[in-house]
């Protein structure tokens, strides 16, 4: 479905009441954004109706806020090239990580007018074959391609289930708090044209809860309120979504193996989007004039390998 097609009734109501959306406003809003983008010397942006509409929705149809979010979108990426530069979805490691089930993008939302559900499972990270940075890059590529065109996400948002069960010792030791803070900061700054509705942490071991406590101090109170700790039980998830939409191992009907193959094929069919993305972003001369974000700021070099694991 094109982003400009008539929305399903429940989404149309939510868009009108929560986002101030009216198709009658599209032409003037698009024109204002395009005129402004043409005057920006320090970055180049997509200008398609679909791209601009995605940011207008996350800005609740404030043109000024949409301008800020488009610029933040490109600025954030230029500051973290380790995560966002030179994406290649045909690399073997990209396919391996997707097929592993590290990222599950559920096809059915939490409700007809509810958020999309994404499950991240660190227990599927195989650091003997891929670095943690490879995993994070893969997650960003996949989410970027999917969220950008998902009307459900733009209007109703998305929530993340972070399943911390059976996480290996190597994955825990490789945890990088600065990288985690950068990612959370990115959600705050709307690095995706989507509404972040919350993160649900399930099967959370004591050790990881300690690591979470190290990070949460850097999280704004508004963002912190969006984190829900579920402990070892999944029962509280029922208040947020029907259990049937979840994978079979969570009591639902989603077949992980079959659907991850479909997901990989879908992502690779969008390779042209990544190719086009090379034409957009911050102007190189501007980036060089800014203070770069180092690998240590990303958290690439720092680890918790001196911590004692109970």
TrEMBL record:
PROSITE patterns: CRAL_TRIO. GO terms for molecular function: phosphatidylinositol bisphosphate binding. The gene is LOC115634262. Residues 91-258 form the CRAL-TRIO domain. InterPro entries: CRAL-TRIO_dom, CRAL-TRIO_dom_sf, CRAL/TRIO_N_dom, CRAL/TRIO_N_dom_sf. It comes from Drosophila lebanonensis (Fruit fly). Gene3D superfamilies: Alpha-tocopherol transfer, CRAL-TRIO lipid binding domain, N-terminal domain of phosphatidylinositol transfer protein sec14p. Pfam families: CRAL_TRIO. This is Alpha-tocopherol transfer protein-like. One of its GO terms (cellular component) is membrane.
